[in-house]
Amino acid sequence: MDNANKSLTGIALQKFKKNFWGVFSLVFIVLMLLIAVFAYVLAPDKSQNANWGDLAIHSKPPGFTVTMITLPGEGSEMSVGHYFSGNPNPPQKFPVLDYSFTKDSLRYTEYNTDPSLAQKKSVPLTAFGNKSAEAIQKENIAVEKFILGTDSQGRDMLSRLLVGSRVSISIGFVAVLISLVVGIFFGAIAGYYGGKVDAFVMWLVNVIWSIPTLLLVIAITLALGKGFWQVFVAVGLTMWVEVARVVRGQVMSIKQMQFVTAARALGYRNGRIIFNHILPNSMAPVIVISAANFASAILVESGLSFLGLGAQPPVPSWGGMIKDHYNYIILGKPYLALAPGIAMLLLVLAFMMVGNALRDALDVKSE
Asked: How many independent structural domains does the chain possess?
């Protein structure tokens, strides 16, 4: 079918499908989104914030395995809701070097990198309910493998990485949403009304743009307080200026077109003309900017977490994980900082690739 018989949206979609890296990056982003939503389903450690840890097994390399004894407890069972929010009452468990059963107790040797310093302890069999030694060995004792090793607190790195993806992806969506709402509003009224309204909006944009982004985010974060949602709002309030400038330029150009003049002649209100007629025809560059802002928001949040102003412990975030382990790079365990760093790199790169693909696809004039 000839492009002349297709809509602009159809042409753009066809061009996007032809961009291998754009489609591949979009699939990767969707996959990361699903991983973030079902993080506790996939994570080996299903405790809330993947915060279970034992200092005896801290900083272990990828592939580390250890025998783990799990004690049953009230409220430790996983419910449906726990698969989305984590188990606030995870069962008590501890790593051991070896174990043996006596008539009324389970004797074990606590895990220690130096076996000569390991302590021997015991737990009565009644702590496991009315189970036989065979049932206990089958249901409460297992060899656990830490695919990505453990962090400096003995927590599972893979679980922290999966749960931490929620912060990075959430900050992207919320910050971009805030920047779009604020930026489109100010850009639309500045471009449509012009005059003093335009001068004031552009003055505000230039003032905000003249302040370094990270410094402005830090200032807003300190004003709102440290926390999860405060960071989202702070990042979003610093990213709207670019959206506003692009929307302003688009509105100033489109408002001179004949269909807008016709809408005015029919007596439509200014609000209807702006939001029903002008803005839908100016969204192409805004979509491209949103993809780039998504990547920028992830990097800014990571920088804040690295400075201790982002998501606060025990909530895991990739920036916080890098902050906790960057000194291990020179201590022979660089994987502790590289794992979240590589995850962040891939996610940001995917959004940039999607942004580039959208830019090329929406440039329908080149067809």
From this structure: 2
Q: Do 136 and 259 fall into the same domain?
A: no
More confident residue, 56 or 214: 56
| Dist CA 284 CA 358 (whole Å) | 8
pLDDT digits (tens, 9 = 90+) for 70-88: 988 765 677 787 888 888 8
The 8-class DSSP code of residue 150 comes to B
Higher pLDDT: 195 or 308? It is: 195
Instruction: Let me know if residue 163 belongs to a domain.
Output: yes
The closest of 224, 167, 187, 193 to 343, measured between CA atoms, is 167
**Distance of CA 341 to CAs 99, 218, 335, 344, 351, Å?**
38, 22, 9, 5, 16
Nearest alpha carbon to residue 333 among 53, 56, 60: 60
For residue 136, give both structure tokens: 């206990």
| Strands of the sheet with 64-71, listed across from one edge | 120-124, 105-110, 92-101, 64-71, 141-146
Q: Which of 99, 90, 95 is nearest to 65 (CA)?
A: 95
SS3 state of residue 92: strand
| Cβ density class 106-135: b for 16+ within 10 Å, e for less | bebbebeeeeeebeeeeeebeebeebeeee
Containing structural domain, residue 116 = 54-146
Is there a contact between 339 and 148 (Cβ–Cβ < 8 Å)?
A: yes
> Are residues 233 and 98 both part of a single domain?
no
Residues 182, 137 share a domain: no
User: Collapsing DSSP states into helix, strand and coil, what is residue 65?
Assistant: strand
Alpha-carbon distance of 295 to 349, in angstroms, equals: 8
Q: C-alpha distances in angstroms, 215 versus 208, 290, 325?
A: 11, 21, 24
Cis peptide before 314 (omega within 30 of 0): yes
Report DSSP state, residue 288: H
Angle between helices 284-306 and 228-236 (to 10 degrees): 140
Helices 335-362 and 8-18 pack at an angle, to 10 degrees, of 140
pLDDT tens digits, one per residue of 329-347: 888 888 898 999 999 999 9
pTM: 0.85
Contact 25, 145 (CB under 8 A): no
